[in-house]
What does this fold into?
Amino acid sequence: MDADVARGRLAGENKFDTAELDEIWAALPVVRPVEMLGLWRGAELITGHRFEGTLGRVGWYGKRFTSLTEVAPIVCRGADGRLYDNVELAKGGASLWSVEFRGESTATMVYDGQPVFDHFKWAGADTLLGVMNGKGVRDQGRHYWFRLERD
It folds into this structure.
């Protein structure tokens, strides 16, 4: 699969087999952390992972990358319509690093308060494919996958 096919497969779809997401991931280009600064809207990709629906229940909006060391990993929309950083669920903030994952160094959000990493690759000019990795994240060997769109 090449990058154009991978991007096309991600466009508009939200339900995937994890093996297909693994192929899509392998075809996409890496991201440099500095390229991610800004606010991003998130959407989970449906694979049957046990985390599915958790973020939706708390009003997950996405992620905010203010700088490489100031990251809000879980931005939610409150009942009043305003965005806020859900530091309780995220167990603090996060930072952006280049971390090797599956043999490539790509932008990775490292949570401050828990052993969790979100790795990213470009899925379009303003779209990222994300995969959550770390202790306790895998569900029967499957990662938790999501997409971010630049806001």
